[in-house]
């Protein structure tokens, strides 16, 4: 399809602005290619022609989330520059741009999304869960930033796992300490009956087991004295 024909199809397409699903096969394929290749100039051109930045692909994934999945950060930047962008749109599995920025350790993008009003709390998996599942250079700082923006520290995933449990298995010692100091409940268990201590133990992170077990015992002693 020639570029002019493509843009004409874009302008006439019924899913511009309102329809959430891609319905033009050629255009959908073109958008997919732009995201995969991080072709920000091509995306900029389409946005100027009237493309809704909140368009979803055939799987229902918003372009911004798809760009984050693929780490196509220049395309993500173009989408975020659009005044029409809705930063909280989620994929069918509930994943948002902030969740991907958090798990990928992209502090600058987390800061930008928060400044644009991205939601920190949501049912099920949250950005804090995702941040706690990572161990990048800025992961602990991202956890701190989310907490400063009122992330619920003991948020429960669908199987009732908390950010502390995930940090115990995947995060740094500093991240776990940050969560404990912030009041994370070390005694909570998920639907499998596992606590944060169990998460650390099954990953053979003995240094983490010791710290969490000490926090667990201190909490028990504190409650026993009430």
What does this 3D model show about the protein?
The protein has 226 residues and is mostly helical. The protein has two domains: 44-152, Ankyrin repeat-containing domain (Serine Threonine Protein Phosphatase 5, Tetratricopeptide repeat), CATH 1.25.40.20; 160-225, Ankyrin repeat-containing domain (Serine Threonine Protein Phosphatase 5, Tetratricopeptide repeat, Alpha Horseshoe). It is built from 13 helices and no strands. α12 (196-202) packs antiparallel against α13. The longest helix has 19 residues, at 206-224. The chain is elongated and about 65 Å long.
At a glance:
The protein contains 13 helices and no strands. The protein is mainly α and 226 residues long.
Tally the beta strands. Answer: 0
**Biggest sheet features:** none
The CATH top-level class label of the largest domain: Mainly Alpha
CATH topology of the largest domain: Serine Threonine Protein Phosphatase 5, Tetratricopeptide repeat
CATH superfamily of the largest domain: Ankyrin repeat-containing domain
Please trace the helix and strand order, writing H or E for each element: HHHHHHHHHHHHH
Rg over alpha carbons: 21 Å
Structural class: mainly alpha
Mean pLDDT, nearest integer?
A: 89
How many domains? The number is 2
How far apart, in Å, are the first and last alpha carbons? 73 Å
Q: Return the CATH architecture of the largest domain.
A: Alpha Horseshoe
Summed up, the helix count is 13
What is the global morphology? elongated
Parts with pLDDT < 50 across at least 5 consecutive residues: 1-23
Q: Helical proportion?
A: 40-55%
What fraction strand? under 5%
